[in-house]
Amino acid sequence: MEVKTSLLDNMIGVGDMVLLEPLTEDSFLENLKKRFDHNEIYTYIGSVVISLNPYRSLPIYTPDKVEEYRNRNFYELSPHIYALADEAYRSLRDQDKDQCILITGESGAGKTEASKLVMSYVAAVCGKGQEVNKVKEQLLQSNPVLEAFGNAKTVRNDNSSRFGKYMDIEFDFKGDPLGGVISNYLLEKSRVVKQPRGERNFHIFYQLLSGAPDDTLKKLKLERDFSKYNYLSLDSATVSGLDDAANFRTVRNAMQIVGFMEDEMQSVLELVAAVLKLGNIEFKPESRCNGMDESRIKDKNDLKEMCELLGTEQSVLERAFSYRTVEAKMEKVSTTLNVAQAYYARDALAKNLYSRLFSWLVTRINESIKAQAKTRHKVMGVLDIYGFEIFEDNSFEQFIINYCNEKLQQIFIELTLREEQEEYIREGIEWTNIEYFNNAVICDLIENNQNGILAMLDEECLRPGTVTDETFLDKLNTICADHQHFESRLSKNSKFLNDHSLPHNCFRIQHYAGKVLYRVEGFVDKNNDLLYRDLSQAMYKANHSLIKQLFPEGNPAKVNLKRPPTAGFQFKASVGTLMSNLQSKNPNYIRCIKPNDKKASHVFNGSLVCHQARYLGLMENVRVRRAGYAFRQAYEPCLERYKMLCKNTWPHWKGRARQGVEVLMTDLQVPAEEFSYCRSKIFIRNPRTLFFLEEKRKQCLEDLATLIQKIYKGWKCRSHFLLLKKSQVVVASWYRRYAQQKKYQKIKHATTMVQSYTRGWQARKLLRELKYQKKCEEAVTTIAAFWHGTQVRREYRKFFRANAGKKIYNFTIQRIMQKYFLGLKSKLPSMSPIDKTWPARPYSFLDGVHAELRRIFHLWRCKKYRSRFTEEKKAVYEEKLEASELFKDKKALYPSSVRQPFKGDYLEISKNPKYQKLSSAVDEKILLADVVNKINRANGKGSSRLFLLTKKNVVLADQKTGQLKANVPLTDLASVSTSTQTDGFFALKLKEGSASAVKGDFLLSSDHLIEIITKLHRIGSMAADREKLNIDISDEFLVQFKQDKVCVKFIQGSPKNGNSVSCKRKNNRLLEVSVPASS
Ligand SMILES: Nc1ncnc2c1ncn2[C@@H]1O[C@H](COP(=O)(O)OP(=O)(O)O)[C@@H](O)[C@H]1O
Ligand SMILES: [Mg+2]
């Protein structure tokens, strides 16, 4: 649920002075002070906001605050300027009423700040969007530009507006800003040439000198040092809390955003620089022979630079400072200017240059921010005009400013006090009149067309003859003397004759806000606002687009001999327009009050505040407010606004509006004392009643919105439903058609199927019958044939013998066998025992016979083959056979020996004379003679030996000499050991204890190893008296060398050892033979 808040929640003092009890001046001030001390600077009097300047920044202007006050009722939250801004904006947006925000108060009371707060609030809450944001930004950024050129430090305010500003912000029907129009009122231009003590010239001069980059300054022919320029007061050149350099950048940036072109900005700065230069031009007197005083420019350098800046001809300007041309009746008269007049001319030019530049800036800004669309606009005007001023030395400007404030007070009185009271009377409400001071008399004293001060000043200015400020004062003295608010020493009113606080050249006006003493000096001149025509013409001639625009009257083609309207006249006229403009709008008041004179925070000067409260008529304001009704509204709009709250008035009330409102109020049961029905309006006493109505209305609007939403949603759903239904019918019809089509096709298909099955069945039935008929016919034939056969066999049986079948069978078998053998004979393979071919068998029942015949044939051809062998050849083959039995698949050397014929005697010893002795020593027949390697037991190296084998002995002899080395009887031989590999190593192992065994076993190597061992074995197996020789084939065997047993180990040699067998003695127990791997 939404939390309801009220102004009354956590209130410090009283938030709305209307609720103050008791109401006295003291309690009023007490309340303000209490709130001020608690940082509550805003207090209401009804819908008027009183604002006390805190002179320090308070955290009450954050975006959160903006959100808090947005779309809330005025009295719902604690008093704030945002509440007023929100009220004004909503009333503009929702009720289509043009608004104006009137901000009044003394100089330094916070008017300008307040106007900026209002603008920023409105900018924050109104519409958003790229275009809208641009407009907002431009509107907001016009402030820094105007402040730089139109504000200055005064003793009252460090950022005092020295011009009046009224800005109309235009909105479209949605409340989005479209643009704006700024009007400016009378810039205090005298400040350009002279500033009171403790004050400064306009900010822009200081900002330019401290903030512009060096090259800009160089272009403008300026120096940073303020002291170089006569027009800049030095005693307060820098203001604490004001960063001129940073502000300069802000201003340039703002100008860019507002839409100033680069060259425009440059022109503006050139003019500012020119004003500074102008101030430095000094004159010296020069007497002429004709006795006339003349002046000369002291140092022409500044003039030269200024002319360069403005593009004017130096001589033209120089002449304009020395002569004055007066045109009268087609005659031109030139008079020389004395030094004082020259200075006057110089300052007049400076003031005019600057003030026209300022007006141009406003026009230029207006061009940028003006609303584009031509539709009707709603307008919110914000008026921030210079405040009431009382200085030590008050001149024409203060007079004008204070006049303007009088007018504003007048409008306040008109609208809040008089208007309100008169309205009560008009409406016939019982009313006791409340006394208040009406300042209309003061306004009349100043602006009366016949004898007002401004009228007389104009009269003086236009009068022929010598006119001085004194003559003007004389005139005032005669005409206004009797006025109760006018005082002067020389007035006929003798009561002031002895008033020493009133000097002779002054007059005093008792303003609504206090007495102000004006010095008449300068009134006439300032009102005349004369610029010698020579000067304006010189300016017009300048080769500078902006200057030319600023001095249109200098155009010789448009010489106008009529005097321009005086400053006072212009101001009065523009104030008049402003007032009628404000009166046409719904006013919202912010009354700014200064809590102290020292610009100090936390200081509340009771008497100062009291003074302001008095002259602002705040007490009267409260009294009128309390006596009357908080709110009023004409019957028609009231009924229109609240008619939805009652069944009888909603939606239309047929009768008169007043009756409608009465019905409405009765229905709502609002207590009768809370309102009264008057002639044309209903008056509501308490804001709370209004809130009650507003709240009800808001709820009701929500309900109505819900109702509209409901009906709309219903309509939307219904139309959607109808559409769906329509579509559903279409879809359904299409679907049905489709489904029927499918069904029909299915039935058709089924029918065809049934049909075809039936036809098939009928056809098969017919076929079966036909087949049966046919079979019957065939059966008949068969039966007939069998029958005939039986008949025949029965007839012929007596002609066949009983065992004819067996005979025929045997005969057939014989024929087949005969044919098989004959065929085999013709296809027999060759007689070679190794031929493996054999013809295929013709009949499977001959399988066994066929294989057997093959075996027999093979045996037979082997026998045939063998029978062709001689005895020697037979012995050789037997030997080979034995070798095969011994070594096949046991030693890798064997396959290579198969092809070698076993020659036996490789040396033919008996024929070799060298071995004569040896052959004689061996008496037996030599079965084998060969050269072997005897392996040295010590190192494994071999030495050649003759190896002879007889039936009984093995003989080893020296190869060269044939000398017998060893003769071992075969009976002493125990076994032969050899490896499984391709080497030719073999060891002859001797029987232990035999005679030959003394020297140890023999380790030999031979290329004919297989033959040697086969022969040794053969001899053993043939001799009946000896046991067979053991042959041991393994890669590791022991050999007895004298006493030691040495292990001979065969290893696979790596290929790097080459293809030869090598034997190495590894240690005294191991002899390693490395054998190349057989490929
Ligand atoms: N609401 C505020 N919060 C903080 N400081 C403020 C406020 N209003 C005014 N001031 C201070 O007072 C100074 C004068 O205010 P300003 O609006 O320029 O006065 P005025 O326009 O009435 O002459 C400002 O420069 C600012 O320092
Ligand atoms: Mg101001």
Descriptive report:
The chain is of the alpha+beta class. Among the domains are: 126-383 and 531-561, Myosin VI head, motor domain, U50 subdomain (Four Helix Bundle (Hemerythrin (Met), subunit A)), CATH 1.20.120; 631-696, Alpha-Beta Plaits, CATH 3.30.70; 820-862, no CATH class; 872-1030, Roll (PH-domain like), CATH 2.30.29.30. It contains 32 helices and 31 strands. It has an eight-stranded mixed beta sheet with strand order 23-22-21-20-26-25-24-27, with helices on one face. A hairpin with a 6-residue loop joins strand 20 (926-935) and strand 21. The longest helix has 110 residues, at 687-796. The radius of gyration is 72 Å and the shape is elongated. 35% of the residues are buried. It binds adenosine-5'-diphosphate and magnesium ion. Residues 111-112, 160-161, 384 line the site of magnesium ion.
